[in-house]
Amino acid sequence: MNLEQIPSKFQNLLKKTFSGDVSPRKAIKAKCYDCVCFENVKEQISNCSITACPLYQYRPYKDVKNEN
């Protein structure tokens, strides 16, 4: 997927991420957006079941009450 195929509301974050001009938290958010293909991001990221992902515990939108 190239930048033109990504919804415009995510493009600025990705441009900054690729240039190294974001915090680690925003870089993780950008990776999670990419992982869910930029669709229903809050729902899909909060319900992520890929616990083997090294970023799993740092993902945005997680429901802290349901974390082990």
What does this protein look like?
This protein is mostly helical and 68 residues long. The protein has 3 helices and no strands. Helix 1 (8-19) crosses helix 2 (24-35). It is globular and about 30 Å long.
Overall number of strands: 0
How large is the count of helical segments? 3
* Rg, Cα atoms, Å: 12 Å
Low-confidence stretches: none
Secondary-structure element string: HHH
Strand content: under 5%
Structural class, please?
mainly alpha
Q: Portion of residues in helices? A: 40-55%
What is the CA-CA span between the terminal residues? 34 Å
**Main sheet attributes: strand count, strand direction, barrel closure:** none
> Shape, please?
globular
Q: What's the rounded overall pLDDT mean?
A: 90
Could you list some keywords that capture this structure?
3 helices, mainly alpha, 68 residues
Task: Itemize the secondary structure elements and their pairings.
Layout: H1 8-19, H2 24-35, H3 41-46
Short description:
By secondary structure, the protein is mainly alpha-helical.
